[in-house]
Design brief:
Layout (H helix, E strand, L loop, with lengths): L14 E5 L13 E3 L2 E6 L9 E5 L5 E6 L14 E3 L2 E6 L9 E5 L5 E6 L14 E3 L2 E6 L16 E6 L4 E6 L14 E3 L2 E6 L9 E6 L4 E6 L14 E3 L2 E6 L9 E6 L4 E6 L14 E3 L2 E6 L8 E5 L5 E6 L14 E3 L2 E6 L15 E5 L2
Antiparallel strand pairs: 1-28, 2-3, 3-4, 4-5, 6-7, 7-8, 8-9, 10-11, 11-12, 12-13, 14-15, 15-16, 16-17, 18-19, 19-20, 20-21, 22-23, 23-24, 24-25, 26-27, 27-28
């Protein structure tokens, strides 16, 4: 591993764009998506029916709730941001639907919501935690559990990869066994030239998670199994492709046990770029990475000043802390991926923000900072 340094910086240009309140939804676990200059996101709790919301937000921080989930047939607890396909938003809820096992929904920019598919908790999976991925008009996603395979920690299955059309025709492409093929995929899929790449939290040769590929026809292949030589453990987040190499994070593992940033080639050769120390450089990277002009940017859920960090890392492994969250008015626990909007990095914190709302001095924020 290439030696790295971490610097603790707190630029004055860090800015909170919005602090969440109960009517808008609270606890924004998801990141944001930019659709022609308008940002969209999801809050996993509260709203009109205490089941989460989908909202739009301007680049100046003005939030408008498009839909409040009712914890019934329309879904509940949207933990992932929607995606845009031909001007319509598509997303998942982790809970809700007739059996309570989650949904796939569509939502117009004016706020008309329609459930495309309700998971049953059986062979089709349960708890779709991640965003969808559009490949030529067909949507692909993962369920964290379910699928009906035995042999893992849960009798009802270790998760699935599925496809669904925009008209609601769903098909399971792969059911994870929790063994060599992996188990419990919590991340969204990455499309690289028509092949999908993802991560599983557990399973693989050493039980510490995998990086896998899967064709749109359902042929799954493990590229790399974690758990060897401090290479990381529990890859929760999605991957990013930079010139044919995949980059990602593991929430645990590494030299000190506080998580890693890794690279893996399409042929399965892995290297650790940075092992988090649990100190100023951050702890437990829950989110994935984004590529901005050949430099990678991400967040750690904890560490730094206590509330997490935002960092950059080069492809050679030089890590630099851009901001440390204090857990007060600036927010705390940035769980989601950052996005690049007009040269600024925008993201969310799960809690914090300083309003009198729930715990940790607030119900979450939307923030921006320079790269």
């Amino acid at each position: 591993m290439i030696p790295t340094r971490a610097h603790r910086l707190a630029p004055a240009s860090y800015r909170v764009l919005h602090r969440f309140r109960f009517p808008e939804g609270t606890l924004p676990t998801a990141g944001l998506v930019n659709v022609n200059g308008t940002l969209y996101g999801a809050a996993e709790s509260h709203g009109a029916h205490d089941a989460g919301t989908i909202f739009s937000v301007s680049v100046t921080g003005n939030v408008n709730v498009l839909h409040s989930f009712a914890d019934g047939s329309d879904g509940a607890q949207p933990d992932a941001a929607p995606i845009d396909v031909d001007g319509v938003l598509y997303g998942t809820t982790q809970r809700g639907g007739p059996s309570g096992d989650g949904t796939v929904y569509s939502l117009t920019p004016s706020g008309t919501e329609q459930v495309l598919y309700s998971f049953t908790g059986g062979d089709d999976g349960t708890a779709p935690y991640a965003s969808l991925t559009d490949v030529n008009g067909t949507l692909y996603g993962t369920t964290d559990t379910g699928g009906g395979k035995t042999g893992c920690d849960y009798s009802f299955g270790c998760g699935t990869v599925f496809s669904i059309t925009t008209s609601g025709s769903e098909k399971v492409l792969h059911r994870f066994s929790g063994g060599a093929d992996g188990g419990f995929p919590a991340a969204s899929l990455l499309d690289v030239s028509g092949v999908l790449y993802g991560t599983t939290q557990t399973g693989g040769a050493d039980g510490a998670g995998t990086v896998f590929s899967i064709t749109t026809g359902g042929t799954e292949k493990v590229l790399y199994s974690f758990g060897r030589h401090h290479d990381g453990e529990l890859p929760l987040a999605s991957l990013v492709d930079v010139k044919g190499t995949l980059y990602g994070t593991t929430e645990y593992g590494g030299a000190s046990g506080y998580g890693t940033i890794f690279a893996v080639t399409m042929s399965g050769k892995e290297r650790v770029l940075h092992s988090f120390s649990g100190g100023p450089d951050g702890t437990y990277p829950h989110a994935g990475l984004i590529d901005v002009r050949d430099k990678l940017y991400g967040t750690t859920a904890e560490g730094g000043a206590g509330g997490g960090t935002a960092f950059s890392v080069t492809q050679r492994g030089a890590e630099n802390v851009l901001y440390t969250f204090k857990g007060g008015s600036d927010g705390e626990f940035p769980y989601a991926n950052l996005i690049d909007v007009r040269g600024m990095l925008l993201g969310t914190t799960w809690v914090g923000g300083g309003r009198q709302c729930l715990r940790h001095e607030g119900c979450g924020t939307i923030f921006e900072l320079p790269p």
